[in-house]
Amino acid sequence: MTLHEASSSVPELGVAMIGSGLMAKSHTMGYRNVESVYGSTPLRPRFEILADAGDELARNGATSLGYARWTTDWREAVGDPAVDVVDIVTPNFLHKEIAMAAIAAGKHVYCEKPLALSAADAQEMYQAAEAAGVKTLVGFNYLRNPAIAEARRLVAEGVLGDLWTFQGRFVLDACSDPDVPFTWRFERKRAGTGALGDLGAHVVSLAQVLVGPIASVVGLSRTFIPTRPEPTGVFGYGSGADLEAARHPVENDDATTFLMEFASGATGHIEASRVATGRTWHQSIELIGSRGALQFVQQDIHTLRLYVTGDPVERKGYKEVELGPAHGDYGAFWPFAGVPLGVHELKTIEVNELLHAIAEDRPADGDFEAGWRVSQVLDAVEQSATERRWVDVS
Ligand SMILES: NC(=O)c1ccc[n+]([C@@H]2O[C@H](COP(=O)([O-])OP(=O)(O)OC[C@H]3O[C@@H](n4cnc5c(N)ncnc54)[C@H](O)[C@@H]3O)[C@@H](O)[C@H]2O)c1
Asked: Which residues, in sequence order, are CB contacts of 223 under 8 Å at separation 6+?
């Protein structure tokens, strides 16, 4: 028996991860998985630097996620010559400053959603990246779903006819308990909007790729739990609550719902809530056209429900399309249909898009321009809810 060396020469891509929370883990899994899942990669990620706000966070993040070096100053990571792509998985208020510095240093940028705290900031980021000629991508991972790839194909081929209405919900009850502590997500200057930017942004991205530009909106927002306890311990999801101290006022929406008019004349409705008691985690869309309709529930990730007009009346009804290798990138994971993929696998598909966009010197599907267009809608909804009137998206 002879052991042979398995080698392939693939150009490398130095990655700097800014933040070490949940999304840092998901993005890192994506970089690690692309080559194994797809069988090849145009660029092989090299895990250079992880930055976080304190020594312990940065050191632990680098060690557990497998980055060669760590720092508490993200600027060091951005400026490092071994870094080719800056991956921003920090709270929202840091996205713009880090992205602008990375773009100025000529680095590609992969940034979580919402892209920025305002559409004006998102536009600056998009335009700076365009001018610098670097590639960008925003973390709208639900766009990568094989079900959404199939829905896009059905729309493009006219199977649903003219599109009439879109409905989408992203609602969960993670914050229904009033003693969930006041972390960055509840703070206006660090998060921007609440449920709208955190959850609604994903549904807006789905509405835009399926139906097209959103022209005007009218929204209603509520903060049902007006105060929360101060946080204790670590940053983010692991934080505890100090139930003895004075409670902190919540600064953004717990739930937002809005009507929208698409540029095409289609109509729609989106609901986002972080206090949807009993809905542990629910994301769904429904799209109705003149000749057909579809429904997709993210938790039933292996099934797309499709209705096409024309069946005899005794067989009329929705059919369940089992997602499989014929849909989107599903076949990279499983050779047969019906196996549920997970959200981290959607991130792998997203990272694959980033690597190909960089290697092929083309814009990524879901780049900063797309992130800016989502932010325009979020701004219009917020303004509409504040002023209690319809607002044009601009
Ligand atoms: N695409 C998705 O499905 C999805 C899901 C969750 C979160 N997100 C987005 O990802 C981003 C991060 O969210 P998360 O859930 O990972 O949050 P998190 O709270 O788990 O992690 C944020 C990380 O940023 C670090 N950080 C804070 N200040 C920093 C600084 N100055 N320098 C470097 N690091 C700093 C924190 O210490 C923490 O490690 C947010 O923009 C959020 O909206 C996206």
From this structure: 194, 250, 252, 253, 254
User: How much is the pLDDT for 245?
Assistant: 87
d(CA 91, ligand 1 centre) in Å? 4
Would you call 300 exposed, middle or buried from its count of C-beta atoms within 10 A (0-12, 13-18, 19+)? middle
Radius of gyration of the chain (CA): 21
Contact 277, 256 (CB under 8 A): no
Which residue has the least CA distance to atom 40 on ligand 1?
91
Q: Provide the token pair at 1.
A: 């028996």
Assessment of whether the complete model's pTM goes beyond 0.70? yes
Consecutive H or E run containing 384? helix 368-387
Q: Is 112 helix (H, G, I), strand (E, B) or coil?
A: coil
CA atoms within 13 A on the CB side of 374: 30
Q: Are 354 and 137 spatial neighbours (Cβ–Cβ below 8 Å)? A: yes
Model pLDDT for residues 94-142, shown as the tens digit of each residue: 999 999 999 999 999 999 999 999 999 999 999 999 999 999 999 999 9
Evaluate whether 264 touches 246 at the Cβ level (below 8 Å): no
Is the separation of the CB atoms in 169 and 195 below 8 Å?
no
Domains and CATH numbers, the chain: 12-141 (3.40.50.720), 144-392 (3.30.360.10)
Ligand 1 midpoint to CA 153 (Å): 33
How many angstroms is it from 173 CA to the middle of ligand 1? 20
Q: Which residues of the chain have pLDDT under 50?
A: none
What string of H, E and C letters represents the secondary structure of 19-35?
CCCHHHHHHHHHHHHHH
pLDDT tens digits, one per residue of 227-275: 999 999 766 677 889 888 889 999 999 999 999 999 999 999 999 999 9
Could you tell me where the beta strands, DSSP code E, fall in the chain? 12-18, 44-51, 69-71, 85-88, 108-111, 136-138, 163-172, 214-222, 227-228, 230-232, 240-242, 248-249, 255-262, 267-273, 281-289, 292-297, 303-308, 319-322, 391-392
- Please, are residues 102 and 308 in contact by the beta-carbon 8 Å criterion? no
Integer Cα distance of 111 and 248 in angstroms: 29
Give kind and range of the element (H or E) at residue 380.
helix 368-387
In this structure, the residue with its CA closest to atom 9 of ligand 1 is: 112
